[in-house]
Amino acid sequence: PERHLLASCWLEMENLDFESPLGVEEVQNRSLSFAVRKAGTFGGFVIKMEASLATPDAAEIQTWRFDNATQTVGCQGHWAQQVVLFPPVEVEEGDTIELDVSVDLSSLQPSYHFSPRLHRANTPGESGGTGEGGRV
User: Fold this and answer.
1) Which residues make Cβ contacts (< 8 Å) with residue 51, sequence separation at least 6?
2) Strands 27-35, 40-47: parallel, antiparallel or unpaired by DSSP?
3) Rounded-to-integer distance, Cα 108 and Cα 26, Å
4) What are the percentages of helix, strand and coil residues in the chain, rounded to 5?
5) 3-class DSSP state for residue 24?
6) Which pTM was predicted?
7) Bridge-based pairing state of the strands 40-47 and 61-62
8) Quick one: which of 103, 98, 63, 102 has its CA closest to 83?
9) Alpha-carbon distance 53 to 50, whole Å?
10) Based on CB atoms within 10 Å of each CB, which residue in 42, 43, 68, 113 is the most buried?
11) How far apart are CA 116 and CA 113, in angstroms?
12) d(Cα 130, Cα 31) in Å, to the nearest integer?
């Protein structure tokens, strides 16, 4: 359930725009930043899919189920959520989890690479640390 999520936002990991005059970008790299909103154990990311397959005012396909009835009714499609797991680490409110994402769509089987870093809010002058070098 959404109440178990440690961050309060969803960020775009990849974008497949089939109507772009330049075509679909085969290699996509993003650096994402998630503010931790409550203390807990960070163990990975949930990936949801949203697809707009028609005009901008048409309904979207969404694979995530929320806690409230309105959004649960809006969930549709046969795609499942994905979970990317990392070794668990305790986080505190105010910490930041950064995630570098590399997506390569140039072959029949796309490849995804995820590299997380934890930045502690309560460690002055620290540029990215879990106490063990910053990698999660």
Assistant:
1) 60, 61, 77
2) unpaired
3) 11
4) 5, 40, 55
5) coil
6) 0.69
7) unpaired
8) 63
9) 10
10) 42
11) 10
12) 18
Phi first, then psi, for residue 130 (nearest 5°) are -105, 5
Looking at the DSSP bridge assignments, the partners of residue 100 are 31, 115
Pull the structure tokens for residue 128.
Answer: 């990215």
Contact indicator for 35, 8 with CB cutoff of 8 Å: yes
SS3 category, 16: coil
Nearest of 94, 114, 118, 87 to residue 103 by alpha carbon: 114
